[in-house]
Amino acid sequence: MFAERLKNAMQGAGYDVRSSVLEREFNLRYWGKPVTYQAVRRWLRGDSIPSQEKLQVLASWLAMDPHQLRYGGEKHASIQEPKAAWDVSASSEERRLLALYRSLPAEQRKTVHQVMETFAKAHSN
C-alpha cells in the first residue's frame, strides 16, 4: 500500500510517476548519500519502504504527513520545526540567488553548497 500512496502523492503534486523522476527529485532534496534508480523503483513497486529519514524527505517534498505516507489512514498530529523567518525577510538579491541555486542540476547544487560551507568556515575563523 505504501507504493500506491507514494504514486498518488506524486500525481497529486503534479509529477509523473516514474522511477527516474522520483530519483531526481528525491536526490535534489536529500543531502545524504544519493539513492539509486533501483532503490526508488523498489519503492514504487512496493518491494521496499524507505528509511524514516528518507520518508521524512519524501513527505516534505510531496507536502504530506510522513505518518500518512507510510501507513495511510487519517492525518496525525506531528511535531514540526517552525518555518524559518528568513523566508519572509530575504532581500530580492537573496531570492534571486536562491532561485538560481534551485535551478541548478543536483551535482552542481552540491558543489555550490560545499563552496558556501568552505567560505563560511574560513570567514568564522
Automatic annotation (TrEMBL):
<protein>
    <submittedName>
        <fullName>Transcriptional regulator</fullName>
    </submittedName>
</protein>
<dbReference type="InterPro" id="IPR010982">
    <property type="entry name" value="Lambda_DNA-bd_dom_sf"/>
</dbReference>
